[in-house]
Specification:
Blueprint (H helix, E strand, L loop, with lengths): L39 E9 L6 E11 L4 H10 L14 H18 L6 H16 L3 E3 L1 H6 L11 E3 L6 H16 L3 E5 L19 H17 L8 E6 L5 H20 L20 E6 L1 H9 L2 E5 L6 E6 H15 L3 E4 H6 L24 E9 L12 H21 L5 H10 L2 E6 L1 H7 L7 H29 L5 H20 L6 H24 L13 H6 L14 E5 L5 E5 L2 H8 L4 H14 L27 H11 L10 E4 L5 H13 L4 E6 L10 H4 L11 H10 L19 E9 L2 E9 L5 E7 L6 H18 L4 H8 L8 E5 L2 E4 L2 H13 L2 H7 L4 H10 L9 H4 L6 H10 L9 E5 L7 H9 L16 E3 L2 E3 L11
Parallel strand pairs: 4-5, 5-6, 6-7, 7-10, 11-12, 15-16
Antiparallel strand pairs: 1-2, 3-11, 4-11, 8-9, 10-16, 13-14, 14-22, 17-18, 18-19, 20-21, 23-24
Length: 965
């Protein structure tokens, strides 16, 4: 970034005398480097665009720990390894990447007086390395891009700019924003200082208004994107609700959405990335309205609200507050913009009001601070702190936070910034953004519903502990290297906000001993914060946010990003050596065991989830436990207010805000959006964004939608197409099935069975080649209604089999059917059945289908299930006959045989089976399972369906994001 600068002044000077930071080893082992404690392996990374078939990246022989997933290693290799591919300078090992970053941090810590001794610096180096290589946390993407390279040492992903009411300032805004986009980051700003189109210029003319200048900035962002980036520019535009042009601002993107629909219906290509979408304006930014308590109270009361001139602050127009609020909600219903930012709440938690108000946010809405500032982020993987007894290791979590906050603060000492103003403010206020990912997976593993009192209590306690520990370490660092330069003038306000956090912590109502233990530690941390802060001050004006964690979430192998719930219960997984699997979330069996289910019930429930993608009517699962398995999409998708309530639980314990979109179904009404915006304000959120499914035309959706009525035709081709349709002759070809009769004498087997106390017999006959050809069932007394129905059913199945209906089809249709009698059976291979039909077709599958066909249906014998528990594979390991007489091979050799046979079901992957060939991500997999489209854009890099991450989207295939890194 050619404009990157490093401030030379303004930093608080490091103290030359007194104590320094002494560290104890918590994670690493003395005398052993963290790399030497793990097993490393070489992999080939080849990335393909699934839509075009083109190879977009290839690097072979890269080195990663054996427990890193293929997806994580692919994303790190393609995104973060530096150096030209195919040259000697190209990084090829995760060790090189981590060493490049950690050594830079350690060296800067020594140079700026953080560590008491070189030995303490070495401990810091090893602790940080241990946490990174084991995926306990990750820095934000710019750290991996830039630190330790020849590039400017930019460590921040989040920027806030400012613009005043002058042409010089407006043109400078275009310039600064452009350089930030060029570097791959995003920025936000508030346009409310610009005069409205209803005010006069000093020359006597009428002002253009901020919306007109948004057009120029939008075009600039789009041009820079198309000039070199593979995703849209990330930017946030904010306007105060009392600005006279507020209605024009609110309706800007909704009007463009109407234009998109009209052009689409006329045959133009209006998909995201389409040839004609560039003719539409204002598409490169998220828009937010900054509302005040005064305005929200006017909405509640149904009174008028005054719009004020920018220069004189006089009311020049009054509007009906409810009508304006309705227009905001209507626009959000139509196109997902604008979101709301709650100005008074934001500034009530502001630690630096004497310096200036908080007027804007970064593009994803989690970083809110002073104008012309930046924030570097890092996120912890919460699931790593879940102990074997299903309790959260609060002490270990706090110790990790201390190491990470120290590193984040050190980075500001050597960081470069895109503008001098941003650099000066960041160095003077040292804003940090520690956060977390995998909350949804953690709560599920602990048997807690995302939208439950228990889930919210745990989230609140963890967030409180994280921020309390961060500020405690910040106060400790202030005693060593001094408080931030702006602290003296803001000390009273900063301490007031610390007491507000402490008071909010006191209001948390824990549910059980698990969250109680976390909360107890958080209470101690906040007590220390207030005491130490009063003596030492603080090193950092801000400490925490909850970011989207898109790309770095995949780097840490997280199931869920940021504060989000789990996306789905069934996931897509890539395999070493190629191929992919469809697996049930690894946290589900753990959650079921936590809820008290035995192994047989766990197996049956997991098998049901593998087939249906949800838990409704899963065998043996109590309805009161359904909420634990609620997800972002699917049959039991979380209600919109469930998202809002979780955000409200965490918000009082964050310096910044939360990047998250409240998803609504396509059938949601404008009134529902109004209620979400109103409740978010009442619950104390700092910002809220909504997205109604299928509200935007300008993005590629699933094929199921694309092939429907919305499919566009080329301009001018309508008449020709209609004429061709009218004259087209269709040749009808009739395929008549033929019956394959059984021989007069055939092999058959009779099986007696008991299901839930009901007894029966099944006789099955096969062709000479072993293929099933007939089934006869005996239940009830001869001549009874039940016996007659079963005879008719047997004949229907037998005739169908002989006419070529595959047994797999019958099994997939009748297995898992649920009705009485149901329950335990006397068959060791099928220990529990949901009905007699469920048992019969599972037994037939075991008797007549191959292992490969059964594994696709998730049906295994008792021997195969036992083998899976012992070796991680359902399938037997084939050893050559000559080798079978030798001694047992080493475990490593067995592992090689397994890999060679492409057995892709490791121990942790429950009910794994090959993924559909046309599914390349979890989003696409869920579309196949549920038959419904996921309303997300396609990735520009690899062509697969992205999924929501905070306020933007992230690609599960390559890690690309639609917003800031």
């Amino acid at each position: 970034m050619t404009e990157t600068v490093r401030p030379e002044s303004g930093a608080a000077p490091a103290k030359k005398a007194g104590k320094r930071l002494t560290l104890e080893r918590v994670f690493s082992t003395e005398g052993v480097h963290p790399y030497d404690e793990i097993t490393w392996e070489r992999r080939d990374v080849v990335q393909t665009n699934w839509k075009t078939g083109d190879t977009v990246f290839e690097q072979r022989g890269v080195e990663f720990p054996d427990f890193w997933s293929v997806n994580a290693s692919t994303i790190v290799t393609t995104k973060y390894f530096r150096g030209a591919v195919g040259t000697d300078v190209r990084e090829w090992s995760l060790k090189q990447l981590i060493d490049r970053v950690v050594s830079t941090y350690t060296k800067a810590g020594l140079e700026h007086g953080y560590f008491a001794t070189p030995a303490d610096a070495e401990i810091f180096d090893h602790e940080l390395t241990w946490l990174l290589v084991r995926q306990y946390f990750s820095f934000n993407s710019p750290v991996w891009f830039n630190v330790g390279t020849q590039s400017p040492q930019q460590v921040s992903a989040c920027f806030i700019l400012s613009v005043d009411d002058s042409m010089d300032s407006i043109l400078n805004w275009y310039k600064e924003e452009g350089f930030i986009f060029k570097g791959g980051s995003g920025a936000g700003l508030n346009l409310s200082r610009i005069r409205s189109s209803k005010e006069l210029l000093s020359s006597g003319g009428t002002a253009s208004g901020p919306v007109s200048f948004m057009r120029g900035a939008d075009a600039s962002a789009g041009t820079i994107k198309s000039g070199g980036a593979t995703r849209r520019a990330a930017k946030m535009v904010v306007l105060d609700v009392d600005h006279p042009d507020i209605e024009e601002f609110v309706e800007t993107k909704a009007r463009e959405e109407h234009k998109i629909r009209a052009l689409r219906d006329a045959g133009f290509d209006m998909d995201l990335g389409g040839h004609d979408i560039t003719s539409v304006q204002y598409q490169n930014a998220n828009n937010s309205v900054r509302v005040t308590d005064e305005f929200m109270r006017a909405v509640e009361d149904g009174t008028e609200f005054g719009l004020r001139a920018r220069m004189t602050h006089e009311v020049i127009e009054t509007v009906d507050a409810r009508e304006l609020f309705r227009k905001i909600s209507q626009a959000a219903w139509e196109c997902a913009d604008p979101g709301l930012q709650y100005d008074d709440t934001i500034n009530d938690w502001h630690t630096n009001p004497e310096t200036g108000r908080i007027t804007a946010s970064n593009p994803c809405s989690e970083y809110m601070s002073l104008d012309n500032s930046s924030c570097n982020l890092a996120s912890l993987n919460l699931l790593k702190f879940l102990k074997d007894d299903d309790t959260f290791d609060a002490k270990l979590f706090a110790q990790a936070v201390e190491v990470i906050i120290t590193a984040m603060d050190i980075s500001i000492c050597f960081a470069d910034f895109p503008t001098e103003a941003i650099g000066r403010t960041t160095v003077d206020y040292r804003q940090l953004g520690i956060g977390y990912a995998n909350l949804g997976a953690l709560l599920m593993a602990m048997g807690l519903g995302y939208d439950s009192e228990g889930g919210r209590a745990m989230a609140a306690a963890i967030t409180s502990l994280m921020t309390g520990t961060s500020y405690k370490r910040s106060a400790e660092l202030a005693a060593i290297v001094g408080p931030y330069a702006g602290y003296a003038r803001n000390s009273e306000a900063h301490l007031r906000v610390m007491r507000k956090h402490q008071a909010a912590n006191d209001t948390v109502r824990t549910i059980n001993s698990v969250d109680g233990a976390v909360h107890k530690l958080a209470t101690k941390a906040w007590s220390d914060v207030v005491a130490l802060g009063a003596t030492n001050g603080f090193r950092n004006a801000q400490a925490s946010v909850l970011a989207p964690t898109g790309t770095i979430g995949f780097m840490m192998d997280c199931d869920t990003t940021g504060i989000e719930p789990d996306f789905s219960l069934v996931k897509f997984k890539k395999l070493v050596g190629g191929g992919s699997m469809q697996i049930v979330n690894q946290t589900i069996p753990r959650a079921l065991r936590k809820l008290g289910y035995d192994s047989e019930k766990v197996e049956a429930i997991v098998a049901f989830i593998a087939e249906h993608g949800h838990v409704i009517d899963a065998p043996g699962l109590k309805p009161e436990h359904y909420e634990v398995f609620d997800t972002a999409m699917g049959a039991r998708a979380l209600k919109p207010m469930g998202h809002v309530r979780m955000m409200a639980a965490a918000q009082p314990f964050l310096s910044g805000a939360i990047s998250k979109t409240v998803n609504l179904p396509e059938t949601a009404t404008v009134e529902e959006i109004e209620d979400i915006y109103l409740q978010s304000w009442k619950l104390g959120l700092k910002a809220t964004a909504v997205y109604r499914d299928n509200c935007k035309v300008g993005q590629p959706l699933a094929d199921a939608k694309a092939k429907g009525a919305d499919k566009a035709v080329a301009p001018g081709a309508g008449a020709a197409a209609a004429e061709a349709a009218a004259t087209k002759v269709v040749e009808k070809i009739v395929y008549a099935p033929t019956r394959k009769r059984l021989p007069k004498s055939r092999t058959s087997r009779t099986t007696s069975f008991t299901v839930g106390g009901a007894e029966g017999y099944m006789t099955s006959g096969a062709h000479d080649d072993g293929e099933l050809g007939e089934v006869f069932l005996k239940l009830g007394k001869q001549g009874s209604t039940l016996a007659g129905v079963m005879d008719a059913f047997s004949i229907a199945i037998s005739v169908g089999l002989q006419y070529g209906v595959p047994l797999q089809t019958y099994v997939s249709k009748f297995a898992n059917q649920r009705f009485e009698p149901a329950g335990l059976t006397d068959d060791p291979d099928v220990r529990m059945a949901q009905s007699i039909m469920d048992y019969i077709f599972r037994r037939l599958a075991l008797d007549y289908l191959s292992f490969e066909d059964r594994s696709m249906l998730g049906i295994y014998s008792a021997e195969e299930r036992q083998r899976h528990l012992e070796t991680g594979s359902y399938e037997p390991i084939e050893i050559p006959e000559a080798e079978s007489l030798k001694a047992d091979p080493p475990v490593s050799e067995v592992a090689e045989v397994i890999e060679a046979e492409e057995v892709a079901s490791p121990v942790e992957d429950v009910a794994a089976k090959p993924a559909p060939k046309d599914a390349h991500t979890s989003a696409e997999l869920m579309e196949k399972i549920t038959g419904t489209a996921v309303d997300s854009p396609l990735c520009f890099t690899c062509g697969t369906k992205m999924r929501p991450a905070g306020s933007c989207y992230v690609c599960e295939g390559c890690g690309s994001t639609s917003g800031c890194s």
